[in-house]
Write a structure and sequence with these properties.
This protein is an alpha+beta fold. It is built from 17 helices and 11 strands.
C-alpha cells in the first residue's frame, strides 16, 4: 500500500488540484482518480457537505431491516469500545454509502455532525467526495484516506480507514465499515483492525443464517429452504433434514397451494410426461415418512402440506407485500430449485423472479439494486444494472464499474 505524503505537502497538492485540475505526483494514484470521480458530477469541494438523506424515523426503519443489523453487537464488541477509548468514531454504511450507524464518544460525534458525518448522511464519492467508506465502496477494497486526501475541504482535518462488507453467501457488497479520527487512523494498524472486524462480521452473518432459520416465525415452525439450492433443506427444533429434489418439489408445490392438490394435479405439475399414479404414491409415501421423523404430517384427499412448514418463498413474498424490497433481496439467494425441470416449479420460479424484479425496479432503492446486481443471478441482468445506474448517477462511488458492466452486457447482446 502506498504511503500518503506528509500533511503539509498534501494540503499544497490539494490546493493545486483544485486550482489546476492536475494531481501532484506526490498524490497517490488511488486518491487522484477518486478526486476526478468526485468532481465529475459538479461536487463543490470548497463548500460541499454530505447530504442528510434519511430522517430519524426513516433511518430507524431502514437499519432495523438491513442485513448488517444482526452484526452490530460484534462490531460494538470488537471495535466500538476500544475505538471510543482512543477518541475514534466507528461508522457502518449501506451499499450506497448511507451511514446507518455512527458510534463513539458523544462529544466527538457532535463535532463530526458539523461536517455531516452522522447517521442518515450519504458518504458516497458522488455526494461527499473522496472518503474512506465511499471510496472503499467505489473500489470494492479496503482504503485509508489521510487528511487532505479528502476532497471536501471541511473534511480535511480528519483521517479514516474503511473496508467493504460482503454477503457471505452471494458475495454482494452489503456496506462498509469505517474508522474515523485523527492522523493515527492513517497508520497500518487501523486498517488491520478494520479488516479483522469485517472478517468477523461476515462470519457472524453466516452463523446467524445457519442458526436462525425461522425468520421470525413461531416456535413450532419448520423452515424449508428452496431458493438457490439444488434440493431442499428442512430446519426446525428437531434438527435439519436434507431432502431429495423430488420431495422438495412436492413440498414447494403443496406450499404454493395450501388448500391442497389432487394426485392428478401433482402429476401434471411434476412432469411434462405421464407420471404413473403408483410412482407418485410411492414418492408421497416416502415423503410422509421423512416428515414424520420431524414431527410433521402430510394429509391426503387432497394432498396438503403441514401448516407448520413455511418456505423461504413464503417469507420472500411476505417481505415484498410489506414493501421490504431490500429484505426480499437478502433472502433471494438464487432461483427456486434451479435444477428442477418440473413444469409447476418452472412456473413458480419464473413468477417469483418476475415479482422480485418488478418490485425492485419500481422501488428504485440503490442499496437493494446494487446488492441484487452483485449476485450471480443479477450479474447478467441488463435492466437491473441500468436501473442501478439511473438511480446512482454517473458520479456514484460505483458509477464507473456499473457503467463498464453495462457496456459489457450490451456488447454481449449484439
Amino acid at each position: 500500500m502506498a504511503i500518503p505524503a506528509p500533511r503539509a505537502e498534501l494540503e499544497l497538492a490539494h490546493d493545486a488540484f483544485l486550482s489546476t485540475g492536475r494531481a501532484d505526483p506526490r498524490v497517490r494514484p488511488l486518491i487522484a482518480e477518486s478526486w476526478r470521480r468526485s468532481l465529475a458530477d459538479g461536487l463543490d469541494p470548497e463548500r460541499g457537505l454530505a447530504p442528510m438523506d434519511l430522517d430519524r424515523e426513516t433511518l430507524e426503519a431502514w437499519r432495523t431491516q438491513h442485513p448488517l443489523a444482526v452484526a452490530m453487537p460484534v462490531i460494538r464488541r470488537l471495535l466500538v469500545e476500544d475505538a471510543g477509548d482512543a477518541g475514534l468514531l466507528v461508522a457502518v454504511s449501506d451499499a450506497a454509502g448511507r451511514l446507518m450507524w455512527v458510534e463513539g464518544p458523544a462529544a466527538l460525534r457532535r463535532r463530526m455532525e458539523s461536517i455531516h458525518f452522522a447517521e442518515g448522511a450519504t458518504w458516497s464519492e458522488a455526494h461527499a467526495g473522496t472518503n474512506a467508506p465511499g471510496t472503499a465502496l467505489a473500489l470494492d477494497r479496503p482504503v485509508q484516506i489521510f487528511a487532505a486526501e479528502h476532497l471536501l475541504r471541511p473534511v480535511t482535518p480528519w483521517s479514516c480507514a474503511a473496508a467493504p462488507i460482503h454477503d457471505p453467501d452471494t458475495g454482494a457488497i452489503l456496506g462498509a465499515l469505517d474508522l474515523t479520527g485523527g492522523d493515527d487512523v492513517a497508520g497500518p494498524h487501523a486498517l488491520s483492525v478494520v479488516r479483522a472486524t469485517v472478517a468477523a462480521v461476515e462470519r457472524e452473518l453466516q452463523l446467524h443464517r445457519l442458526t436462525r432459520p425461522g425468520d421470525g416465525a413461531g416456535r413450532e415452525t419448520v423452515q424449508l429452504r428452496a431458493l438457490g439450492v439444488p434440493a431442499g433443506i428442512l430446519e426446525g427444533e428437531r434438527g435439519t433434514s436434507r431432502l431429495s429434489l423430488r420431495h422438495t418439489e412436492l413440498l414447494v408445490l403443496l406450499a404454493a397451494h395450501r388448500d391442497g392438490l389432487t394426485g392428478d394435479e401433482l402429476a401434471v405439475a411434476l412432469s411434462d410426461e405421464d407420471l404413473a399414479a403408483v410412482t407418485l404414491r410411492a414418492e408421497l409415501s416416502r415423503l410422509r415418512a421423512a416428515l414424520a421423523g420431524m414431527g410433521l404430517a402430510l394429509e391426503a384427499r387432497p394432498y396438503r402440506i403441514d401448516p407448520r412448514i413455511r418456505t423461504d418463498v413464503d417469507t420472500l413474498r411476505e417481505r415484498l407485500a410489506s414493501g421490504d424490497v431490500g429484505g426480499a433481496v437478502d433472502l433471494y439467494r438464487g432461483d427456486l430449485l434451479p435444477l428442477s425441470d418440473a413444469p409447476g416449479i418452472r412456473r413458480l420460479r419464473a413468477r417469483l423472479r418476475a415479482e422480485l424484479r418488478d418490485r425492485l425496479l419500481r422501488a428504485g432503492d440503490p442499496d437493494a439494486l446494487l446488492r441484487f446486481a452483485d449476485t450471480e443471478h443479477g450479474r447478467d441482468d441488463w435492466e437491473i444494472w441500468q436501473a442501478a445506474y439511473d438511480v446512482l448517477g454517473p458520479a456514484s462511488p460505483r458509477g464507473d464499474r456499473v457503467r463498464a458492466h453495462l457496456a459489457a452486457l450490451e456488447r454481449d447482446l449484439r
